[in-house]
Amino acid sequence: MHFQGDLHQYLKEKGSLSPLTAVNFALDIARGMAYLHNEPNVIIHRDLKPRNILLVNTAANHLKVGDFGLSKIIKSQHANDVYKMTGETGSYRYMAPEVFKHRKYDKKVDIFSFAMILYEMLEGDSPFSSYEPYEAAKYVSDGHRPTFRSKGHTAELKELTEVCWAADVNLRPSFLEILKRLEKIKESLASHDHHWHLFSQ
């Protein structure tokens, strides 16, 4: 399989994505992560960020999750247990607050990172880009979240992003639940585009 760069570089060149493109990319990421989080052997990525999301082809319309250097494999009987980060902790800008605070964690840390990536795809700018990465993570750990400024995203995408970066890990959905919500959003966006084309003809 030949890769054409990563999502970080793509967003740097393209800026914010259309809602439909962002949803399609988010679906690719969520499918990959749902597979990793699937039992019997759950894999927590622990360093999900745009640089670790690879573009698969020259059309840049398909993504793969890569770089498992910090991943942790958890046997099925321990899939719901919580762990403490040891050694490397991942990238600060996309880091869940419980990781930054060195608290116990589970696979929901990947859900938080996914939310930050979804935000970046919709806004075209990394979360708290005016902050240094460590300061951004500290700001997030204090309860702050990035502000949506773009008018192009839908309320459903904003709501999904916000629930995925919830401070309470129990509120964060699983990737299987995220996939269901993204599919519904995609259907709604496609339907809207279809009606718009009919109206504009």
Please explain how this structure is put together:
This is Protein kinase domain-containing protein. The structure is a single chain. This protein has 201 residues and is mainly alpha-helical. It has a single domain, classed as Transferase(Phosphotransferase) domain 1 (Transferase(Phosphotransferase), domain 1, Orthogonal Bundle). Helix content is 46%, strand content 6%. The protein has a two-stranded antiparallel ribbon. Strands 2-3 form a two-stranded antiparallel sheet. Helix 2 packs antiparallel against helix 7. The longest helix is centred in the C-terminal third of the chain and has 26 residues, at 175-200. Mean pLDDT is 84; it is low at 73-88 and 194-201.
Rg is 17 Å
Tally of helical runs: 7
Measured as a percent range, the helix fraction is 40-55%
Largest sheet: 2 strands, antiparallel
Give the count of structural domains: 1
Q: CATH top level?
A: Mainly Alpha
Sheet with the most strands: spatial strand order: 1-4
CATH homologous superfamily classification: Transferase(Phosphotransferase) domain 1
CATH topology: Transferase(Phosphotransferase), domain 1
Total strand count, please? 4
CATH architecture: Orthogonal Bundle
The geometry reads as globular
Strand content: 5-15%
Residue-averaged pLDDT: 84
Enumerate the spans where pLDDT stays under 50 for 5 or more consecutive residues. Answer: 73-88, 194-201
As an assembly, this protein is single chain
Specify the structural class: mainly alpha
Secondary-structure element order, as H and E?
HHEEEEHHHHH
Amino-to-carboxy terminus distance: 41 Å
GO molecular function, one term: ATP binding
Domain Protein kinase: 1-197
Pfam family, one: PK_Tyr_Ser-Thr
Protein name: Protein kinase domain-containing protein
